[in-house]
Amino acid sequence: MKLAAIDIGSNAIRLQISTIYDQGPKLLFKKLEYVRFPLRLGHDVFNDNRISDISKAKFKKLMKAYKLLLELYEVDDYMFCATSAMRESENGPELAEEVKNEIGVTINIIDGLLEAEFINRAIASYLGSDTYLHIDVGGGSTELNLFVKGIKIKTRSFKVGSVRVLEHHDSPVMWNDMEKWVKDNVKKEYGKLTAVGTGGNISKIFELAKKKPGQALPIKKVKEIRKMIESQTMDQRIYDLQMNPDRADVIVPATGIYLQVMEWARANSILVPDVGLKDGIMLHLFEKNVTQKKIEFKKGRF
What we know:
Blueprint lengths: L1 E7 L4 E11 L2 E12 L3 H8 L4 H20 L4 E6 L1 H5 L3 H12 L3 E3 L2 H12 L7 E7 L4 E7 L2 E8 L3 H5 L5 H14 L7 E6 L1 H10 L7 E2 H12 L3 H6 L5 H4 L2 H15 L3 E3 L5 H25 L1
Helix pairs in contact: 5-13, 8-9, 8-12, 9-12
């Protein structure tokens, strides 16, 4: 089965196409194609509350290109999901309707809770029965999910993100609200807490730390790497640290969000599984298709 997930974020728009092999209790996702295009919708929306005409034109071209890739790879099912920037823009739904009518692609503008749910699907296999605070920092929002004994007990989305902080559109009220949420919900009786970070910026921090997959990254190391990046010019970040330009300018404010949440939660380390929203969408599509096949089989049998 070939599936595709398109993550329309505030800082970039990602497409991934994978073949899924069902091997009993385990699923194997073999990546066939991955494209990340740096269209920063959040810049428009967080400044003007709407997506500009220039960005709209680029967005439509990109949707056409992604649709062609889906056709060329003969994808069985796919899902386009838009997050913070499009759901906050006053013309986001209008743009989604135009794309549907002109290109034939349906864009699902999802809320923060559904966004968190998709990501939780992707990280579930990395969590044990301990206490975890999952932190997902995007361009426009941060999703927090608290797991106790392997069960998610609390979730919340906050309008604090890397692009929003970079461009000084983050609200002190929202920061205070996020701090209160963490301190109210992360209780001492839950025992030692480990942070779990998802998102391109924390993945880059993990890469620079040269840790092996599955190893926890101490908060001290995260601070050291952030300080090192902060001392670099944009050119040094791009050429020496091998960052995309649209990663080089947001990675410091993004890392600051992870660190602040970890400090509030008294987390000494963070796990960084290499998954994100697109992986959760893939799992959702797989489960949907398997369920549909079972229904069709039963109808044919009975």
